[in-house]
Design brief:
mainly beta; seven-stranded mixed beta sheet; four-stranded antiparallel beta sheet
Length: about 130
């Protein structure tokens, strides 16, 4: 299994930016698709976005489209979530996770598709 560690969370003001990192141990990390999820207090965990290993295509929830981007550095075994124009409703614990690679028209957007998870990093956005 891949071990994942998120970092980069913190407390910011609305409109600010943060970049989260998901760093993995294990040489097979680059084979996996990587997704970012978040869970706010009292709410279910939801997909934020992710990146496919096969072609680097990214996908995002409607709530963050145009504000968040995902990129990966295979050399650094790291996937990044760049979050711009943050809103108070973005406040949550953010997790990264890995899933078997998808191709074509398929993207892993359900949390049960993901097999390894990080411990999460808190993001708090105040108005």
């Amino acid at each position: 299994q891949v071990q994942l560690v998120e970092s980069g969370g913190g407390s910011v003001q609305a409109g600010d930016s943060l970049r989260l990192s998901c760093t993995a141990s294990g040489r097979t990390f680059n084979w996996f698709d990587v997704g970012w999820f978040r869970q706010a207090p009292g709410k279910e965990r939801e997909i934020v976005g992710g990146i496919r290993s096969s072609d680097g295509k990214t996908y995002f929830a409607d709530s963050v489209k145009g504000r968040f981007t995902v990129s990966r550095s295979n050399a650094a075994n790291t996937v990044y979530l760049q979050m711009n124009s943050l809103k108070p409703e973005d406040t949550a614990v953010y997790y990264c996770a890995t899933a078997p690679p998808r191709t074509g028209i398929y993207y892993s957007i359900q949390d049960y598709e993901y097999t390894s998870w990080g411990q999460g990093t808190q993001v708090t956005v105040s108005s």
